[in-house]
Design goal:
Helix content is 41%, strand content 15%. By secondary structure, the protein is α/β, with parallel strands linked by helices. It folds into two domains: 242 residues, Rossmann fold (3-Layer(aba) Sandwich); 27 residues, no CATH class. An eight-stranded mixed sheet has the order 3-2-1-4-5-6-7-8, sandwiched between helices. The longest helix has 29 residues.
Amino acid sequence: MGKLDGKVAIITGGAGGLGSAHALLFAREGAKIVLCDPGVERDGTGGDPARVAELAAQIEAEGGEARASAAPAHTAEGASEVVTLAEEAFGRVDVLVNCAGIRLNRTLSKMSGEDFSAVLDAQLLSAFHMSQAAVKAILRHGEGGRIVNVTSAAGFFGNKEQANFAAASAGVYALTRTLAIELQRQRIFVNALAPVAKTRLTEDLPMFEHTETLTPAHVAPAGLFLASDLSGERTGLVLAVSGSQLYTFKLVQTPGKFKDGNAPWSAEEIADHWDAISKG
């Protein structure tokens, strides 16, 4: 018996990399798959619907069930189209995995507003619109569901030449936390994955030049865990995957320091007491 038997899973960015690894594994675990990917280049240009159609055909050749869409997930209309496809083909939606993203690395001085917005649209706006549309469908059948959002360590620590990607990743984290709070009562559990993996988007980065051990195949089982009943009622978490290493990201608040009385802190006092304020 598969871990996702009877479930319907939508996967954005599903034509390659992390998306395709999740799609193939989920299908082998019994899920019916709806793939969403316009088949753009990694910088967001172009578009080839054949890419996502080919993966859907591969899943069906292996005995699974899949549908493909090249709709733009970063628009409300595109997201609605994908969810409608899932409901018309398979009757319901149980799982959403937001893997969509592009890469446009630039230093701040060379990054245009279009460069910034394009990455936020592909990663963050698509996660918002797809989550909104998928949640409505999940609530229609009333049995709960799961959302898995792909974020990145760049969203916590930043990264050189990735102001757009880091901002989008931080936004995905905040979106994940907020949806986890809002949707828990409806038994919709929302978590995030922060993968370190060699994909089409990352393969030319120096850290991946001499490694073949940080692959999407390492990441997909973590996604399966979060998308299945194995994760129980866990929600609002960030599970990080770096090859064979798993860990979680957490934001930690220091104990801080109280000032006697109710007077506001002066800037000089903050400087004088910085160690006590900032250290755990």
